[in-house]
Amino acid sequence: MRLTYQYRLRLTKKQVDTFENWIELCRRQYNYRLAERFNWYKENRCDVDRCSIVYCSIAPLKDKPNRWSQQKDLANTKALFPEYKELPSHTLQDVIARVDKTFDRWLKGDSNGKRSGRPRFKGKGRYRSLTFPDPIKPEHIEGKFIQLAKIGKIKVILHRPIPDGFKIKTATITRKADGWYIGLSLEDMTVPSFTTDAIPTPDNTVGIDMGLKSFLVTSDNQKVQIPHYYRKAEKKLKRLQRQLSRKKKGSNRRKKSIKRVAKTHLKVVNQRKDFHYKIAIWLLNQSQVIAHEDLNIKALTRSKLAKSVTDAGWGQFLQILNTKAASAGCLVVAVNPNGTSQECSDCGATVSKTLSDRWHNCQCKASYCRDHNAARNIKHRAVGHPVLKARGVLTDGWTVKREACAVP
């Protein structure tokens, strides 16, 4: 099992300067290695894939840079630029690993075949973390201090203890707007990966309908109000950004103003994430199976509702919900969202509604809040539509051509 714990750091002025210098050196190395790959790709890419057996005037291909060849070339970098000798070797090698990963995601895609966009060079301030891949031994932790290579002991606020039996595999130093943090990646091979044998049934399943009027409504008609953290911070952000626009570029006052804006954005991010974790735990304490709509959130963020959808953070919430469900031995099910608001959760008839229609009234006398009706439909789809199947509306647990059904 693998976990990551993040702690706040209390660094001395000298340690801050050292980390700042190391991050800048890593940023330059990242851009240089990425440029190497782009140059090879540009110079050696050719549409011609066949050559004459007798004669070919095409120059031989240069050696393609990869992770191992670039790591081997770090010796030359240290010889030409002695300041790189100050960095831990494995930290510098991790920079090459990041370049290799982002370049392969662009050309080949991840394990699911999803490709990322073209990698971009890191501008000043855009490279914010250092990784120490070497495992940290127990003797390197003394009270509130953790010892790292070539930097010595750094003070950590251990707001929660490291679990017994877990080994610290890697440590990542991250610079944020409000200070420095360390992320410890913990692993315990004796604990199996999280698995669940939960099967959706009407008794152990709850459906949730996420929206913009309420953050979510459950199939039991429990509502969670949306907090609107970004909307509430907009007035302050507008004032701070107006002050920032008046500052002279390159001045110290502009740097301070940038930091104030970044801190405000970070506070909104932290508030939203804390809210998502609390709601996820609240749902998992109620039921073993959580059903939700399989929404195309990326498309919604390009619509007129983009700001509201982004402020709600549905994507982050579903990611957190899946992670916490796996650790709790629960199950999260995504169902087809088509027609969940239009169908009657009692008889299956289609009741056309516009976005302004917030109440569901059916000829079978069913009367529900629109979101409550949708949450009930989501639950029915997760468990195989037991209510509708009993009325003969469905076959094999999936929707077929329906007609309006009246409850006897």
Structure description:
Helix 1 (about 15-45) packs parallel to helix 4 (about 90-105) and helix 6 (about 250-285) packs across helix 9. The two termini are about 55 Å apart. The strands form 4 sheets. A 7-stranded antiparallel beta sheet has the order 2-6-7-1-5-4-3. A 5-stranded mixed beta sheet has the order 10-9-8-11-12, with helices on both faces. The protein has 2 domains: about 1-40 and about 60-185, no CATH class; about 205-335, no CATH class. By secondary structure, the protein is α+β, with helices and mostly antiparallel strands. It is globular and about 80 Å long. The chain is about 40% helix and about 20% strand. In the N-terminal section; belongs to the transposase 2 family. Keywords: DNA recombination, DNA-binding, Metal-binding, Transposition, Zinc. InterPro entries: Cas12f1-like_TNB, RNA-guided_DNA_endo/Transpos, Transposase, Transposase_put_HTH. It comes from Anabaena azotica FACHB-119.
